[in-house]
Amino acid sequence: MLSNAVIRSVPDFSTFCLKTKLDDGSPVTLRAVHRDDGPRIRRAFHTLGAETIHARFFAYRAEVSEAELAHITGVDFKRDAALLATIDVGADEIVVGGVSYFALDDVNPPKRAELAFTIVDGYQGHGIGRLLMHEIIAIARANRIEVLEADMFADNIPMLHVFQHAGPPLTLLREEDTIHVRLALTASAALASL
User: Fold this and answer.
1) Do 142 and 136 meet the contact criterion of CB atoms below 8 Å apart?
2) Higher-confidence residue: 169 or 32?
3) Closest CA to 81 of 132, 18, 119, 24
4) CA torsion angle for 143, 146, 152, 158 (degrees, to 10)?
5) Which residues pair with 103 in a beta bridge?
6) DSSP labels, the chain
7) Can you say whether the dihedral through the CA atoms of 19, 28, 85, 117 is positive or negative?
8) How far apart are CA 90 and CA 84, in angstroms?
């Protein structure tokens, strides 16, 4: 006997692409990460300053590993997702930022995911974080993720501002020099955080 359950299809976010503008009017493309983006992401990593690397990885590092690149470019756009912000096109395309989430639990669909951003130094403060946040929240909600979580340094005021203006209810837990951020994407998750 068939149940009366509604089967909800989720869009294929692996084809996501949005051409938009930064706060200064410059064109930027937000798009799904592709399996062949490893070299582009590595080039972007090599342009990051020491402070940006430390803020993103909580330590200085000189390189991004092949395993990390495979992890980020191998997302399924359900349990895990990654978007890039790029300028130019084709062989001239340059990655200037990115956002990803990765499931934190084994249930299907996952209830919680860890969120991470990286914006290339020269493009910080131009609205890329805000644009990426808006799109990754929409993907997470479509995939029925209830909570996005992130850890950041307490002095990362620009990123804190992005989280505070993201829209969903926000919980901040400060521990020494770090803040644990929790974005409740559903009403039940928001109630649970009270």
Assistant:
1) no
2) 32
3) 132
4) 80
5) 113
6) ----PPPPPPP-GGG-EEEEE-TTS-EEEEEE--GGGHHHHHHHHHT--HHHHHHHHSS--S---HHHHHHHHT--SSSEEEEEEEES-GGG-EEEEEEEEEE-SSSSS-SEEEEEEEE-GGGTTSSHHHHHHHHHHHHHHHTT--EEEEEEETT-HHHHHHHHTSSS-EEEEEETTEEEEEEE-SHHHHHHT-
7) negative
8) 14
pLDDT at residue 191, as a whole number = 54
Higher pLDDT, 6 or 13: 13
pTM of the model: 0.87
* Angle, in degrees to the nearest 10, between helices 66-73 and 38-46: 120
Domains of the chain in start order, with CATH, are: 13-149 (3.40.630.30)
The tokens for 94 are 């340059």
Contact 147, 14 (CB under 8 A): no
| Residue 166 pLDDT exceeds 90 | no
Q: How far is CA 9 from the centre of its chain?
A: 22
Q: What is the pLDDT of residue 75?
A: 94
Residues 53-75: tens digit of each pLDDT: 887 887 787 888 999 999 999 99
- With 60 as the cut, is the pLDDT of residue 1 above it? no
Question: Which letter, b or e, does each residue of 86-125 get, where b requires 16 or more Cβ atoms within 10 Å of its Cβ?
Answer: bbeeeeeeebbbbbbbbbeeeeeebbbbebbbbbbeebbe
